[in-house]
Amino acid sequence: MQDPGNGNTDAVASSGSSARRMPVGFVGHGSPMIALDVARGAELTAWSKALPRRPRAVLVISAHWEDAPLTLSSISPGTSLVYDFSGFPDALYAARHDAPAAPELAQRVMELAAPWRPRTSARGLDHGAWTVLTHFDPQASWPTLQVSMPYTARAEELVALGRALEPLRDEDVWILGSGNITHNLRRLDRSGTGELATWAADFDAWVEHALSSGAVDALCAPERAPGWAIAHPTPEHYRPLLVALGAAGGDVATVRFPVVGFDLGSLSRRSVEFG
């Protein structure tokens, strides 16, 4: 297959000569306003520039799409983005990220994830995907596909899904989970005091330690961790991390944190790279 830079923008064949396989990422996407945030975006752009090479395609698993069985986003060119939020400035609804579709990647995912009975859809990328890709891929040149998180899946099954998708890393596909290590919108501090909530700091630190230790079993049972019940009233923003954890495979202990910190007193920005 041709290199994407030579016209075939949705190719996903293995590069063959690569000394290092593509890493796996998990990004703390936070507010949709990150799409317009130059400072926050610069950190993501720096992260993408540090990847070992340009991805042939990107596969995103976002907290904002739970659907079972496993469902793939549209592979039709020009599919509209999903603006799945309300009450934000008009400029955000005018923002675009018109990445190429990735039909060959879709076919590969259908093969690798066959036990999850994957199906296709006409759905565009949601804000857990396009707001961060605006900075990861400012030219919107990376073919992009999104897959749902099966809401019926247990933690161990999400890890297994990631493991099924792991071969894509050897085909220069960047697998990217998108959620947040802490996510309780009712506990956000909009007063500007800058005080960090203890429960948020505790859970974020627990995740950092568990990831650094390669403690997969512990990460699959986060309800035992300090601060979990407040950090995640519902678990969907944590669960993309489990898919990324599975896709990391043998690189699970090779972890770094490209972005850290908190917004609004409790919303963790911690992002993770395996490999």
What is the helical fraction, as a range of percent? 25-40%
Number of E-type strands: 10
Quote the CATH topology: Protocatechuate 4,5-dioxygenase, Chain B
The number of helical runs is: 9
Largest sheet: 6 strands, mixed
Assign the CATH superfamily.
Answer: LigB-like
Q: Report mean pLDDT, rounded to a whole number.
A: 93
- What would CATH call the class? Alpha Beta
Mind explaining what this structure looks like?
With 275 residues, this protein is an alpha/beta fold. It has a single domain, classed as LigB-like (Protocatechuate 4,5-dioxygenase, Chain B, 3-Layer(aba) Sandwich). Helices cover 29% and strands 15% of the residues. It has nine helices and ten strands. It has helices at 38-49, 90-94, 103-112, 127-136, 155-165, 198-212, 216-219, 228-231, 239-248; strands spanning 24-28, 57-66, 71-72, 119-120, 144-149, 173-179, 255-256, 262-263, 267-268, 272-274. A hairpin with a 3-residue loop joins strand 8 and strand 9 (267-268). Helix 1 packs across helix 4 (127-136) and helix 5 packs across helix 9. 47% of the residues are buried. Mean pLDDT is 93; it is low at 1-18. Pfam families: LigB. Keywords: Dioxygenase, Metal-binding, Oxidoreductase, Zinc. Belongs to the DODA-type extradiol aromatic ring-opening dioxygenase family. GO terms for molecular function: dioxygenase activity.
